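Supplementary Methods. Inverse-folding protocol.

Structures were first reduced to a discrete structure-token string of length 77. This string, shown here, constituted the complete conditioning input.
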């Protein structure tokens, strides 16, 4: 089955709203989907990573530069 990626752009979204939006999007993923999240570096990145690690979500960094980071979250089977 082909993997489908959904995109969530949270650049310029303040904490903790970006954590909430990310969590809601992850809850809606089906087994063949991944979620690509764009975040600002700094507090938004730290808060999202910390909160979602605590919730046992797995992710990897796809890209990052001085201002933004792109994470890929995998659906838990």
């Amino acid at each position: 089955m082909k993997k489908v990626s959904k995109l969530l752009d949270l650049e310029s979204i303040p904490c903790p709203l970006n954590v909430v939006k990310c969590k809601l999007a992850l809850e809606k993923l089906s087994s063949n989907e991944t979620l690509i999240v764009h975040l600002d570096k700094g507090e938004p990145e730290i808060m999202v990573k910390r909160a979602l690690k605590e919730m046992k979500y797995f992710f990897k960094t796809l890209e990052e530069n001085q201002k933004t980071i792109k994470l890929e979250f995998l659906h838990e089977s």
